[in-house]
Amino acid sequence: MAKGKVLLMLFVSILMGTGALLLANNWLQQKQANISAENQAEYTQPVQPTVKEEPKVARVIAQIGIPLGTKIEAKHLQVEYYPADLMSASGFEQTEQVIGKLARNEMFQGDIIRKERLVAPGEGTTLAALIAPKMRAVTIRVNDVIGVAGFLLPGDFVDVIYAQEKVNRASTVLKKIKILAVDQTARTDESKPIIVRAVTLELTPKQVETLITAKSKGELQLALRNPNDPEEKPQRVYRRTTDAVTVIKGTQTSRVNVRI
Fold first, then answer.
1. For the chain, percent helix, then strand, then coil, each to nearest 5?
2. pLDDT tens for residues 33-81?
């Protein structure tokens, strides 16, 4: 009887030891599987690069197109942010700095508004502010024919043709002249023809003298031109020289001038 109890206890001990061994082995396998899964996730997960955010500054831009000579209002403007190292110091950070000024030239939607593109109140008339440095503005009277049937607009370029009635001859006295204003406006209105009585041209002081001299002697005609036409290169003039050769006829000798 005692021997049977010993065998039973031995069997139970072996069974419990085997169970504990199986449980421990299962736990180790599960632990290794979890560690492998974590390592695999670390290797497969992309490393996010650290991006250094660049400092940005506010700049006032044109929310809509702004025609030349327009008094700028809040509806024309909006504020956007740009990288600081790409911006010049001539821009504006607040719309209040721009409102009330005049557009020196036409600005398109999205253009950054700069100081050199504006005219502040008190800096003279709008037209005077539009004149380029060292240039002059001269107004001439026109009719439907001279004014190209009303298709002249500020910003267009024309050639000025001088017609001499007495000799029935015409010649171009000025080329690619910019129109600053038609009548009393320096603004453009798309391509709608308007009847004008006067056109203001931007000229150099020398061109002013040429225009006034031609106007006093005959009639002026304006020819509208494409602003993208290439500049005509001045033709080089070669001066002909003369030389003398000696011609001998029998006993007579003479000198004859010959062009070279």
1. 30, 30, 40
2. 777 776 666 555 555 666 677 789 999 999 999 887 788 999 999 999 9
**232 vs 140, 175, 229, CA distance in Å?**
25, 10, 9
185 vs 101 pLDDT, higher one: 101
Residue whose token pair is 């056109």: 199
| Tokens (6 digits) for 196 | 């004008």
Q: Which CATH class is domain 56-119?
A: alpha beta
- How far apart are alpha carbons 224 and 130 in whole angstroms? 21
Q: What is the structure's pLDDT at 142? A: 77
Measure the CA angle with vertex 179, ends 173 and 182; round to 5°: 120
Q: Using an 8 Å Cβ cutoff, are 68 and 103 in contact?
A: yes
Residue 223 zone, left/alpha/beta (φ > 0; ψ -120 to 50; rest): beta
Q: Of 31, 70, 88, give the one whose Cα is nearest residue 185.
A: 70
**Quick one: residue 190, left, alpha or beta (phi over 0 = left, psi -120 to 50 = alpha)?**
left
* pTM for the structure as a whole: 0.51
User: How many residues does the structure list for the chain?
Assistant: 260
Residue-wise pLDDT for 195-236, tens only, equals 677 889 999 999 999 999 988 888 888 888 887 777 666 666
- Start-to-end CA span in the chain (Å): 152
Q: What are the boundaries of each domain within the chain? A: 56-119, 131-186+194-224
